[in-house]
Sequence to fold (324 residues):
Amino acid sequence: MIAARSVSLIRADDAEPVVGVEDLSRVGDMLYLSAYDRREERAGGVYVVPVADVMNPRLSRVLVTRIPVTAPESPPARPHGLHAMAGATVQLAVISRPAPGAPHEPPEILILRGADRLSVSQRLKDRRLCNANEIISLREDRLLITNDRADCGRWGRVYANVFRPRGGTLLRLDGDVLTVVADRIGFANGVEADERHVYVAATRARALHIFDRATIEAAHEPVLPLRTLALPGGPDNMVWGDDGKLYIAVHPNLLQFAFFRLNRGVGAPSRVVSYDPGSDEIVTVADLPAGSALQGATAALRVRNALILAGAFADGLAVIRMEA
Fold:
């Protein structure tokens, strides 16, 4: 494995750099990104970029296109989790967090659909999603959303951090109906699914919970996971690679990552593990020390012989060429 290569992302409409890519999702040849500058509190957006441009070793700067949304709607300014799904058209599910001045306002769930032009077709706000973190589409009218903590508001989150560290939940959204289908999760973060299972990242528990998908889809109350696997760090977002494995960004040292988030001059390492659903094997595939090209990775995607890394507090992306 060689060192990570930095890739700067430049908005095509105004030539401004894209900072703080929290999450990424791939559909075919296109990569969808959610980003905003958390430290400067500058508005961001949802972007799309050809995978080939990011993978091109000759390009250190890549133009990204802000997702066009028909008036009177506008792109979410503080997008967090997102998931793209291909069907007759592209469906993009996005969690848009409230402005800093509205700490008690719950995030908004946005569903965008379209072919050449995506537009908002559904909006939802619900207090049970006050700490919505990640989202995936199981099908066009059914989504799963993680809520990392149960208590709302700034002080509610502080209380949850201290007294209810296992207060995270997984919710199923059917149309506009929300159902809690799993609870007592130690900071529910990333979520993914395949034909048989649903996978939920528990950051504080440093674990991957594996649920039966059919049970999750039919549940009317919280269910238990089939099994739980230990991870070498606190997991963040998860993305399926083109080799059929699940790639999970994990934080080796959660306390160090917390200081890194606060911009205290402390760097943060990046670690990526793969999970093979056929063997249940978890393998560390990338370890970058603090001070590397991308610190504190929050998402990773394998494309052929490379890893694409994103970080909620990083500039642009990073690409690592993998050994065959």
Q: What stands out?
A: The radius of gyration is 18 Å. The chain has a mean pLDDT of 88.
